Amino acid sequence: MTPGTRTAIVTGAARGIGLAVSERLIADGWTIAACDMLEDRLREEAARLGDSYRPYRLDVTSENDVNTVCERIAEENPPVLGLVNNAGVTRDSLLMRMDAEAWDLVLKVNLTGAFLMTKAVSRQMMRRRAGSIVNLSSVVALVGSAGQANYAASKGGLIGFTKSLARELASRNIRVNAIAPGFIETEMTLSLPEEVRKGYAERIPLGRMGKPSDIAEVTAFLLGDASSYVNGIVIPVDGGLST
Ligand SMILES: NC(=O)c1ccc[n+]([C@@H]2O[C@H](COP(=O)([O-])OP(=O)(O)OC[C@H]3O[C@@H](n4cnc5c(N)ncnc54)[C@H](O)[C@@H]3O)[C@@H](O)[C@H]2O)c1
Fold it and tell me: Considering the entire predicted model, what is its pTM?
């Protein structure tokens, strides 16, 4: 594919892993439709990254937002051939202290958000008979995590979602894969207490936390043509934490 002639939609693209993924994909020649609720951060990054990073304010939990904005993106930046479902939140607590609100919010953003985005974007991909979708799951979907039952359930759900759609959309030449990041240095993990972060880092065979760029490299592989026969898999990118 000629550089500059294809667009990928990245959710949660204003910071952290989503931002690193956007930067890495731009280096591969993708135009990025950068979707997030953090309008100021989107604007700042757009000023820094230039015309290949196109900001769109979007809440992945709003079906109306998702459908309207995805249509706009398709009109303004055709062809849309990539989707990275990266937007995610945590609301950690032990089960006995977890209220239904924290459960619902995490499921809604992490899982329903990916469903709404994928439905809207794969409609466009089906017409073109081409596309690649990458879902950001988590190592906790594979091994569990005390205090994160809601988050682990949402990320486990994404794996079933990924494998089902890999079967369903393959006949239209749309591939669907997932990445299960381990413990990555972003604002999401920086908000954890220092001793929790240290405890995690000590359990990682490679002896260090991951960087957003570690995830971005694998996302670029799964989104691009080099992985054209890879479909329905989950790649842990966790320094060996889940082995
Ligand atoms: N950091 C880690 O260690 C780690 C590990 C495993 C998986 N992940 C997953 O990777 C993804 C990115 O994580 P991160 O560490 O960069 O987190 P982050 O909190 O730094 O970034 C998440 C982004 O998603 C956006 N977002 C949240 N709710 C949204 C919504 N409703 N609509 C649109 N955007 C929304 C936020 O504004 C933010 O910009 C998440 O899905 C996360 O669960 C992260």
Answer: 0.97
Of the CATH numbers 3.40.50.720, 3.40.30.10, 1.10.3720.10, 3.30.720.120, which one belongs to the domain with range 6-183+213-230? 3.40.50.720
DSSP structure class, residue 184: B
Q: Ligand 1 within 6 A of 23 CB?
A: no
CA angle 11, 129, 6 (to 5 degrees): 50
What is the residue with the minimal CA distance to atom 38 of ligand 1?
12
Percent residues over pLDDT 70 in the chain: 98
What residue spans define the domains of the chain?
6-183+213-230
Q: What is the pLDDT of residues 48-71, one digit of tens each?
A: 999 999 999 999 999 999 999 999
167 token code pair: 């079967």
> Which of 188, 189, 196, when mutated, tests ligand 1's pocket best, judged by the most ligand atoms within 8 Å of its CB?
188
Q: Are 80 and 9 in contact (CB under 8 A)?
A: yes
